[in-house]
Structures are given as structure tokens and as C-alpha cells.
Amino acid sequence: MAGRGKLIAVIGDEDTCTGFLLGGIGELNKNRKPNFLVVEKDTSITEIEETFKSFLVRNDIGIILINQFIAEMIRHAIDGHMESIPAVLEIPSKEHPYDASKDSILRRAKGMFCAEDFR
């Protein structure tokens, strides 16, 4: 990846992935693995979690965008990710609005700022 930035990966419903792919984020790595997963009704939680974990270890990915309702399905895996890169951002979908109270990254950030207030 010399001379190139890191990729954005997407785990989302069909509308979310289509929008980002039309925006140009679609890539295949040297092993021909895509940087996105379209989650459909028959997509297993195991497949979602395995894809998320595979994105975490890819050195060409800097940000993982995931629909919040899908993140809820693998919350334990997302909560276990403590590194800053790749950053994991939970985003809304057409059918599921964003709920800040469910966003573990936002809760973690708020916790850091609140802890600093008491020093």
C-alpha cells in the first residue's frame, strides 16, 4: 500500500452498501477479498462477526462503517475492539435510525471525557 491511504470497509444492508459502492469505496485486496459485506435476511451472525474480525486484521483498512442494527448483532465483538485503527463507526440505515445510547464507541469517548473532568 505504498503511497496509498487506507480503505473504508462497510458492513451494512443493501441500500447502505450500494450507496457507498456508488461513492467509490469498493476494493479488493491482493487476496481478492472485498472491503464490504452486504447483510441480508439470510446472512448469519457468524458470517457478520467473521467478516468484522477479518476487517480488523487487514492492514489496508482504516475505518469500518457498520449499520447500528447490525452492530447490535455482534456487540460483544465491537466492544472487544480497543484499537484506534481501524476506527469502527456505527451508522444509521433507512429503516433503523441512529441511537446514540447504543453506540459503544460514543459511550467510551464520553467516559474518557467525564473521567478527565474529575481529575
TrEMBL record:
Pfam family, one: ATP-synt_F
Record GO cellular component, one term: proton-transporting V-type ATPase, V1 domain
InterPro entries assigned to the protein according to its UniProt record, in alphabetical order: ATPase_V1-cplx_f_g_su, ATPase_V1-cplx_fsu_euk, ATPase_V1_fsu_sf
Alphabetized UniProt keyword annotations: Hydrogen ion transport, Ion transport, Transport
Domain of life where this protein originates: Eukaryota
Keyword Hydrolase among record annotations: no
Molecular functions (GO terms): proton-transporting ATPase activity, rotational mechanism
Spans through the membrane: none
Family as reported in the entry's similarity comment: Belongs to the V-ATPase F subunit family.
Purpose: Subunit of the V1 complex of vacuolar(H+)-ATPase (V-ATPase), a multisubunit enzyme composed of a peripheral complex (V1) that hydrolyzes ATP and a membrane integral complex (V0) that translocates protons. V-ATPase is responsible for acidifying and maintaining the pH of intracellular compartments and in some cell types, is targeted to the plasma membrane, where it is responsible for acidifying the extracellular environment.
Complex formation: V-ATPase is a heteromultimeric enzyme made up of two complexes: the ATP-hydrolytic V1 complex and the proton translocation V0 complex.
NCBIfam families documented for this protein: V_ATP_synt_F
Protein name (record): V-type proton ATPase subunit F
Organism listed in the record: Osmerus mordax
Gene: VATF
